[in-house]
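Input record (Table S2, row 107):
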Amino acid sequence: MSTTRRQFLSRAAVAGVALGAPSLLAACGSGDPRSASGCDGYSALTPQELQARQGLNYVDASPKPAQLCSNCMHYTAPAEGACGGCKLFAGPVLAGGYCTAWAAQAS
Ligand code: SF4
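Output record (iron/sulfur cluster complex):
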């Protein structure tokens, strides 16, 4: 049985995703069900910390394309992986996230 170049590339892509996905998940933690992003950190938060986060209506995907955590003055970029942070509350924050405290970075 011969394998075409297309079949080989397709299988290699599937294998790459299968092998890479666990390491990506490990980089961001085990996947707390409260976190749509899969970034760990929610389970370690106190009720008060969760309340602070929820009080600002944080979401992992911003509904405002021009207002993202990544261009907010309160965002702290991750050293590696996808889970950054926010200076206003504890726990993981994604670059594409948003909350009602968004403020433009100083230029
Ligand atoms: S204040 Fe809100 S928008 Fe700004 S980094 Fe924190 S969570 Fe993201």
